[in-house]
Amino acid sequence: MSGRLTLSWVNKDQALLPDGDGGYEWVERSDPRVTEVHLLHHGDRVGEFVDGLDDNLLIQGDSYHALHSLVRIPEYAKRYRGKVKLVYIDPPFNTGQAFEHYDDALEHSIWLGMMRERLLLIRELLSPDGSVWVHLDDAEAAYCRVLMDEIFGRSNFIATAIWKRRNDPRNTATHISADHDFILCYAKNISFSQFNHLPRTDAMDSAYTNTDNDPRGPWRRGDLAARNYYSKGLYPVTTPSGRVIDGPPSGSYWRVSAEELSRLNAEGRIYWGPNGDSRPYLKRYLTEVKGGRVPSSVWHPEEVGFVRNGKEEVRALVGDVFATPKPERLMHRVLQIATKPGDIVVDCFGGSGTTAAVAHKMGRRWVTVELSAETIAAFTKPRLGKVVAGADAGGITTESEWSGGGGFRVLTVGPSLFERVGSRVLLADWAKGAEFAQAVAAQLGFLYEPDGPFAGLKGRTRLAVVDGTADDVVVQSIVSYLEDNERVMVVAKAVAPGTEQVLRQLSMGSQLLKAPGDLVRRGKVVR
Ligand SMILES: C[S@@+](CC[C@H](N)C(=O)[O-])C[C@H]1O[C@@H](n2cnc3c(N)ncnc32)[C@H](O)[C@@H]1O
């Protein structure tokens, strides 16, 4: 017993993998599919582009595979690993209901296992000053908080935001109508995270008036008396009407000395009441108020949207009803607090694409992942297409002054490279030619860069993938292409006897691996 407080659940020592049908299966941590990196296949591009890897990404597939690929495939890792400022997720709540577009009835421990695998990858994606926000309700919020303490460290907990979703309690509730959701917020490292203030509201500004036509503009009364001891803070004052006040209210001190009070008064910065007869107050001017307001943990629907607003926004764009879209103003609030323009925002339970739509309109870069191809086709892709085309007049379009632009790429998580037949691991049928070479590069952490006989590069080591048998003739030919100081890692589907020694003699430090066995073994150490 280490004495550390942890949450336990059935099969916690195992890994949980997507089963390809929208469900999950527990497997041993040593299973090759746990460490396997899936390729991300390029699909359509929508809107305008700068260069391929600078695109915003809409990824169809399971969030575990998608996040794993972003963290492990060098081309993506370079751009996303440790670089993501905000991850917001709105996973299935595990409420035990089956929604129309996805199955929410995961067994409790499966839900925790599913979340753990993804939160571990999310931690790798986050930048040192990044934060993760997890949207839940009472079904799992308490358990997820303990899970997140375990993964991110209890000291990195920032707050639980309460979103009051509706103002009309459900009269059919058995005991108490649950009218709010939780959003758990953790920093990657609380000492580096800095949140933005929210803009001031009209209500806050309306507390400032200008009853005396002060040329400095609207102001409000600030108290000049306080309880803190101040050695020069006890003296009588004479009001403009001529009344003498012995001193500040009993038990308090003037905050400024008599000299300072008379200087402020000469500048017209002291208020003596409407008739010049009250005790003095300091005039605090609206123009001198710095910063906005510190975000509060309770979010009201009048400010950040009602449940129905999310549904209306999606329906107005794609003409169909999505079960659980969040209002754009809710996401606007999260992004306002935790990001700046240009930051990367990730949502790996994308649904109808609210996070991406709002990120796009606010000038943030984004990656969104959604498991269901049907949801992407019916909601996410058409919605985001309208956003980039400037054809979405709803949501936060007006307040963010959005008029269209930018673009995104659609990617699909590729299938597994491995197939299990009994206890044996074989290569999948699709693993041939260039696709096989690309998949091997991804598994072994090589940048995929086809060049002559080579498929990839890592430092001074080249990767050569042989879709057949490696023998001494093949390795001699490969080695003849190496530059001085370069080595090669040859991966082949079959290896003729003695070839490994030939390779070592030709090129010291070069290696020969046989797929799939050696890939599986190396996968376990490449983590
Ligand atoms: C509560 S909804 C998200 C709604 C979203 N915030 C919006 O505003 O539209 C959860 C989504 O996660 C998707 N999902 C469930 N399991 C997933 C997984 N393992 N990987 C990726 N997406 C998943 C579901 O298909 C569903 O669309």
Describe this structure in words.
The chain is an alpha/beta fold and 527 residues long. The chain has three domains: 15-199 and 294-413, Vaccinia Virus protein VP39 (Rossmann fold, 3-Layer(aba) Sandwich), CATH 3.40.50; 202-288, no CATH class; 419-526, Trna Endonuclease, Chain: A, domain 1 (3-Layer(aba) Sandwich), CATH 3.40.1350. Helices cover 29% and strands 25% of the residues. A hairpin with a 2-residue loop joins strand 22 and strand 23 (454-458). It is elongated.
Provide a concise account of the structure shown.
The chain has 527 residues and is of the alpha/beta class. It has 16 helices and 26 strands. The radius of gyration is 31 Å and the shape is elongated.
- In total, the number of domains comes to 3
Counting helices, strands and paired strands, the structural category is alpha/beta
Report the radius of gyration as a whole number of Å.
31 Å
* Sheet with most strands: strand arrangement: 3-19-4-18-17-5-6-8-7-16
Outline: elongated
Count of DSSP-assigned helices: 16
- Looking at the overall shape, the CATH architecture of the largest domain is 3-Layer(aba) Sandwich
Mean of all residue-level pLDDT scores: 93
Give me the count of strands: 26
Small molecules in complex = S-adenosylmethionine
CATH class of the largest domain: Alpha Beta
CATH superfamily of the largest domain: Vaccinia Virus protein VP39
CATH third-level topology of the largest domain: Rossmann fold
> Cα distance, first to last residue?
27 Å
Largest sheet: 10 strands, mixed
Uncertain stretches: none
User: What is the helix content?
Assistant: 25-40%
How much of the sequence lies in strands comes to 25-35%
